[in-house]
Amino acid sequence: MRIFITGGNGFLGRHLSEALRAAGHAVTAPSSSECDLTREGCFAPWRGVAFDRIWHLAAWTQAGDFCLKHPGEQWIKNQQMNTQVLAWWSMEQPQAKLISIGTSCAYAPELPLREEHYLDGQPIQSLFTYAMTKRMMRVGLSSLEKQFGVRHLTLVPSTLYGPGYHTDGRQLHFIFDLIRKILRGKTYGEPVVLWGDGYQRRELIHVDDFVRTAVWLADRVDNDLVNIGCGYEHTIREFAGLICAHVGFAPENVAYDTSKYVGAKSKCLEITKLKTLCPDFSPTPLERGLPAVIDWMREHHLGKA
């Protein structure tokens, strides 16, 4: 197949591009400078090229408290990006199936994180703007399907982890931030201070598991939304304990700052639909997947004292 990927140079994008190319597909994955999705005409270089699949991974966001500091910009830029993709798809690439990446933060915290609730209730305020742009993408997909009969799929991941994470200085997702802080505590004797009380809970899925499952679903499921996660979560203290055990750092030397931003207290996707669609789904156990990421972080993200 001929496949176009937005956000192909991101963490997920690089893993997805590699997997698709290894499977023999022709992949076009331009950088943001080659295809600025906030500008009209950004797809002009591919006019006349027919794609079989479009994977829309690009989003203007970062981890940590980024969403708190940039809500206005997030709304404008993500809406511009989504609208450009939706218009190009429906008007110039209607033969292509569009697979879009949703977000778990779109779910209202008081409701089960189950697919039928994706548009129900209100997301938490700290992530509200970003979450709503993802909801609007879902509405756009459904609306264009109704009018033009195009095919689509939305995949909602839990937090992805794996080797090859960003090294460009942006804020790190929580698991990479934990690893880096504990590695620096072990290597340089720096204080290790984690945000919150450590009892907030998070779910992880290895990026290779997500890519493999996403590609499988893209071949088989149309016009739907599917969560992809492990179905269980751990406390930040449990994650820290696993990291400390691997690097040889005493967990009692980890401090917690309850004044810092922590986001949702719990975030675990309901994956009944996934297990029904993909009964052989078997995610990598954290105890096996995490050590390789720690070792990769030691080489690429440790920095100097």
Automatic annotation (TrEMBL):
GO MF annotation, one: GDP-L-fucose synthase activity
Domain NAD-dependent epimerase/dehydratase: 3-229
InterPro entries: Epimerase_deHydtase, NAD(P)-bd_dom_sf
SUPFAM superfamilies assigned to the protein according to its UniProt record, in alphabetical order: NAD(P)-binding Rossmann-fold domains
Domain of life from the UniProt record: Bacteria
Name of this chain's protein: GDP-fucose synthetase
UniProt organism field: Nibricoccus aquaticus
